[in-house]
From TrEMBL:
<protein>
    <recommendedName>
        <fullName>DUF11 domain-containing protein</fullName>
    </recommendedName>
</protein>
<keyword id="KW-0732">Signal</keyword>
<feature type="compositionally biased region" description="Polar residues">
    <location>
        <begin position="233"/>
        <end position="246"/>
    </location>
</feature>
<feature type="region of interest" description="Disordered">
    <location>
        <begin position="204"/>
        <end position="258"/>
    </location>
</feature>
<feature type="signal peptide">
    <location>
        <begin position="1"/>
        <end position="21"/>
    </location>
</feature>
<dbReference type="InterPro" id="IPR047589">
    <property type="entry name" value="DUF11_rpt"/>
</dbReference>
<feature type="compositionally biased region" description="Polar residues">
    <location>
        <begin position="206"/>
        <end position="221"/>
    </location>
</feature>
């Protein structure tokens, strides 16, 4: 910050110095001879009579003054009566300099020591030093950082001569020096600081210390970020009166201005799209600054109306100050160096659509001053998207909370639920409807069941007889922007559907724009097929006689009858369990007990599917070998290991219609 002494002040200082001079130079010899003039008694003049000559040598009378702006300071810094000798305004980080004059007002040459300065203020000066007048190479009365760096600090003013009263002008008795210091970069607006140069002579030893200067901090850390070439968003190109005009993005899209916002439109596509905006930042503060640039987080982009998967990135910036944030680099407070342009690249996913016609997805770009992190400025980039909303029926048109609907139905039944289609674009549009669910079948495999859609004319969320009679539709018909149509979706569950007690079947629902190809899906709804049928078990008894020759094994469809028997006859008990549900069952085993008055003969098992038969007695360990002995009252069990892991557990499944059979033979005692 420059500090100039006025010509009038300098002139006054010089005149004052001459007026205060001690006069005759020290060491000057002053001689004096007296004389007498007289007459005789008659009054006649006689010759002049002279005295002896006397000699006086002028002694040293050292003195000096130090002035700033031709004046001294008064009072104590910070006090109510304090008046500094000179004041300036400076920015944080500035080098300030004060040009002092020292006048030898004595009658003898002297050398003056420049002692360390007293510092004061609400912030502390740094790099306090003195410099000679010669450091001011351009003679403008101010020391710049470059001039100070090219010079060497001084601690004295040597051999300053006294003013010779017998000559005119400055005989070198007036010299100049600079008191300099740095204003801390952390200084705040309105703070004051200063120094008091302390000067004393080798002969005039009384120090001059009423030379306080004072700097008042003027700090303004601010900046503006706006659309391309319009950082202040006033509609004109920065530093001109020319109106800003739409421009083309690198992708060939037209970007328009509206105040502190830019906008671009993206048509629907089946691929990701990118739009690149150009921003301009200006340093409007009064000192160099670096502006950190930040973009919204994914959560903020989502809240701003962008579809999930949207990304934003900065182009043309680097982290110049190493704080981990991309920035503008150093911007000066004035001129062309005050501006920085860069780009914001927005990429939306394939099939991107707006949340609603009245919601314009926007990117808030923020510039933050590094000098004052509390100062931020923002600008907005808008991305206009076409699209459609589709999902469960909602009370208000255009709202799409898209909750999860879980439908449950039995094989052979029809289930239904309400849906909405909402034109979220900016033109009339119609939308094709499609949907399906894949249902497993009890006999194996699966069946893709298409959804059918009916217009819910009264909007009650229920398929009424008249609506059903009107028949299903495959398109919404033409919808104006912001208009919603309500539908009922139905699913006819096949009669041979397997139950899904532990899983849900995903329902896919899609609408496709007939004009733009925009697609919206509602794929979070599910169907669960309820269980039907039950496990059936039948027991048959046959008399195999004393030779243990049995008739053909009974079938599950047969009828059980009681048989008579005599001692030593073999009875065959046949136990059959059949899965008559609409899904697999697990860890099935059959159990029978050796009756009283009988002896154990044998036991065997067979499964209608693939698996290994296991046996156990009285709840003991399972094994693949059938038992050979059994006592009255003991139980024997038969199971099947269908997954081949050697263990009977829930991973062993009996298919729909599968049968597990036990052949248990005893002899009548």
């Amino acid at each position: 910050m420059k500090n100039y002494l006025s010509l009038a002040a300098l002139t006054a200082a010089l005149l004052s110095a001459n007026a205060l001079g001690a006069g005759t130079l020290a060491g000057t010899t002053i001689t004096n001879t007296a004389s007498a003039t007289y007459g005789d008694a008659t009054g006649t003049a006689q010759p002049e009579v002279t005295s002896n000559t006397v000699t006086t040598t002028v002694q040293e009378v050292p003195s000096f003054t130090v002035l700033l702006n031709g004046q001294n300071s008064s009072g104590t810094p910070g006090g109510t009566t304090f008046t500094p000798a000179g004041t300036i305004s400076a920015r944080p980080g500035d080098v300030v300099s004060f040009r002092y004059s020292l006048t030898n007002t004595g009658n003898v040459a002297d050398t003056y020591a420049l002692s360390p300065q007293t510092v004061f203020g609400t912030t502390t000066p740094t790099n306090v030093a003195y410099y000679p007048a010669s450091a001011d190479t351009n003679s403008d009365g101010v020391l710049t950082s470059a001039e100070r760096a090219a010079s060497t600090p001084i601690t004295s003013l040597p051999s300053v001569p006294a003013d010779d009263p017998n000559t005119t002008g400055n005989d070198g008795s007036v010299v100049y020096f600079f008191a300099t210091y740095n204003v801390p970069a952390t200084a705040t607006d309105g703070q004051t600081l200063g120094t008091n140069p302390i000067v004393s002579g080798a002969k005039a030893t009384t120090a001059d210390n009423d030379n306080y200067n004072q700097t008042t901090v003027s700090r303004s850390d601010s900046g503006l970020i706006g659309p391309r070439d319009d950082s202040n968003a006033d509609g004109t190109v920065d530093n001109t009166t020319n109106t800003v005009a739409p421009y083309q993005s690198p992708e060939g899209r037209t970007i328009t201005y509206s105040g502190d916002a830019q906008s671009a439109s993206l048509p629907y596509t089946n691929a990701p799209q990118t739009i690149t905006f150009t921003q301009t930042v200006k340093n409007t503060g009064n000192r160099d600054d670096v502006f950190d640039i930040t973009l919204p987080t994914p959560a903020q982009l989502d809240a701003a109306g962008f579809p999930t998967g949207t990304t934003v990135e900065l182009v043309g910036l680097s982290d110049t100050d190493g704080d981990g944030i991309l920035d503008t680099g150093t911007l000066a407070p004035n001129g062309l160096a005050a501006f920085k342009s860069f780009q914001v690249r927005v990429t939306v996913p394939a099939g991107a659509m707006p949340d609603a016609p009245t919601t314009i997805p926007s990117v808030i770009v923020t510039a933050r001053s590094s000098n004052d992190t509390n100062f931020v400025n923002t600008t907005t980039d808008n991305v206009l998207l076409s699209g459609v909303q589709f999902g469960e029926s909602t009370a208000q048109p255009g709202t799409s909370p898209n909750p999860i609907t879980q439908l449950v139905g039995a094989p052979g039944s029809t289930v239904s639920y309400p849906l909405d289609v909402y034109n979220a674009g900016n033109t009339n549009d119609s939308f094709t409807l499609s949907g399906s669910v894949v249902v497993p079948l009890t006999g194996g495999g699966s069946q893709t069941v298409p959804l059918q859609y009916y217009v819910d004319t009264n909007g009650n969320g229920v398929l009424d007889p008249a609506e059903q009679t009107a028949g299903p539709v495959t398109t919404t018909g033409t919808l104006a922007p912001g208009v919603e149509t309500k539908l009922i979706a139905t699913i006819a569950i096949p009669a041979g559907a397997a139950s899904t007690p532990n899983t849900t079947l995903a329902i896919t629902n899609t609408v496709t724009s007939a004009t733009t190809g925009a697609v919206a899906s509602d794929n979070n709804d599910t169907l669960r097929v309820s269980s039907t049928g039950f496990l059936q078990i039948k027991k048959f008894v046959d008399n195999c006689g004393k030779t243990n020759v049995c008739p053909a094994a009974p079938l599950f469809t047969g009828t059980a009858v009681n048989n008579a028997g005599a001692p030593q006859d073999v009875l065959r008990y046949t136990v059959i369990a059949k899965n008559n549900t609409n899904n697999v069952i697990t860890f099935l085993y059959l159990k029978d007990i050796l009756p009283e008055n009988t002896s154990f003969v044998s036991v065997s098992g067979v499964y209608s599917g693939t698996g290994t038969i296991y046996y156990r007695v009285n709840g003991g360990a399972w094994g693949t070998t059938a038992p050979t002995t059994l006592t009255t009252g003991q139980s024997v069990e038969v199971a099947v290991d269908t997954d081949g892991n050697g263990v009977i557990n829930a991973s062993d499944t009996i298919a729909v219609g599968g049968e597990l059979k036990m052949d248990f033979r005893v002899k009548i005692n």
